[in-house]
Amino acid sequence: MKNKRYNLADSTIGPPDYKVMENFLKARKYLNQSVYTKNFEKKFSKFLGSKYSTFVNSGSSANLLMAQVLLEGNFLKNKTVVLPSVSWSTTVSPFVQLGYKIILCDCDKFNLGLCINSLERICKKYKPGLVLVVNVLGHSNNFQKLKSLKRKYNFQLLEDNCESLGSKTNKGRLGTIGLASSHSFYYGHHISTIEGGMISTNDKKFYNLSLSIRSHGWARDVQKKFRLNLEKKFKIDEFKSLFTFYYSGFNVRSTDLNASLGIEQLKKIRKISLIRQMNYNRYKKNLSTFWCQKSDLKILSSFGYATFVKNRLDVFKYLRKKKIQSRPLICGNMAQQPFIKNKFKNKINLNNAKFVDKYGIYLPNHANLSKGDIDYISEQFLKIAKPIFFS
Ligand SMILES: Cc1ncc(COP(=O)(O)O)c(C=O)c1O
């Protein structure tokens, strides 16, 4: 094991995928978004258990597109959004860019999703129109309690599921609970289309708006009935049809080449999730004296093994010497990130997120790690790391 490197992430794209792309390129003249994209979207919806999916060029674009669809479709009672403090830059930044009033919420001490008590206090005071959750590193939020708060305070719910593709509760997969969800197919994620992302929803209007806003705001890609209604409403004739823009759109499309890769990658997702779950359980057993992330799941499609250590920099440096990568727990507390810190005053108590920011670390988990690899990483980690727990 001496010369082996233990990276946080590894490629899921191998020789069968190259063959698929090669065959695609030989067979097709038109390489842009077309039938392969439709096919990938259909297969992805079937896997996830949702009605509709929209393929885009990244998970970040999926978040941006969801944020714009909500505005253009008048889905919200107001533009106040609650976002997780333990999340990713592009979980938060689309809402900043589109002029939402953002409130960062503290994280839960067990699953690292939203802290329900903190969220309820925010709902009482600020009456948000939207709550977005991140399912952190494969783990679920407390959706039972979230749903009851949603009923009580009447907000829309979105899921950023970019780190949790494949995780499943007794009721279905993560990413099927809110009005819509985002997914990432970036390098090292559960599956990859090189760059890529997806929005999934059961809502027909949300779906059609996402198809339109993905491509300039035109109606070329929306369902036929939806397009005819728009043309009737705005009195658009055949001549102008292709060049009329109904919504303020982006271009966040991907291509059929990426979709052909996605179709092939999707065949492996179940197996990848199970290996990631096995790795997680092995870490949990090996590192039983340390804090461990918990949520109620039937399948835990783990993304990384999160824990807390008192001496983080020492652990990081020691592991690096042993060729083992480690990193902050996602990216700590978003409220401390420079792009937020000096611009917004977040009046909410973020004590748990501050703890995550100070002590959080995560270890490699991907489908190319063996039991022996997990044992080796655990053994090295135990040699240096000092545990610490939420108070
Ligand atoms: C929670 C979360 N949301 C969004 C993203 C962005 O996804 P992408 O890299 O595909 O833009 C990431 C990236 O890892 C993420 O962890």
- The CATH superfamily name of the largest domain is Type I PLP-dependent aspartate aminotransferase-like (Major domain)
**CATH topology assignment of the largest domain:** Aspartate Aminotransferase, domain 2
- Major sheet details: 7 strands, mixed
Mean pLDDT: 97
Strand content: 5-15%
Strands ordered across the widest β-sheet: 1-9-8-5-4-2-3
* Structure summary, number of beta strands: 11
* H/I helix tally: 15
Label the CATH architecture of the largest domain: 3-Layer(aba) Sandwich
Give the ordered list of helices and strands.
HHEHEHEHEHEEEEEHHHHHEHHHEH
Poorly predicted parts: none
Principal-axes geometry comes out as: globular
Total domain units: 2
Helix amount, in percent? 40-55%
Structure overview:
The chain has 391 residues and is of the alpha/beta class. It folds into two domains: 15-266, Aspartate Aminotransferase, domain 2 (3-Layer(aba) Sandwich), CATH 3.40.640; 269-384, Alpha-Beta Complex (Aspartate Aminotransferase, domain 1). 42% of the residues lie in helices and 12% in strands. It has helices at residues 15-27, 35-48, 59-72, 89-97, 116-126, 143-153, 204-214, 224-233, 238-241, 256-266, 269-286, 312-321, 338-341, 351-359, 371-384, and strands at 52-56, 80-84, 101-105, 130-134, 156-160, 168-169, 172-173, 180-184, 197-201, 305-308, 360-363. The strands form three sheets. The chain has a seven-stranded mixed β-sheet, sandwiched between helices. Strands 6-7 form a two-stranded antiparallel ribbon. Strand 6 (168-169) and strand 7 form a beta hairpin. The longest helix has 18 residues, at 269-286. The two termini are 38 Å apart. The structure holds pyridoxal-5'-phosphate (PLP).
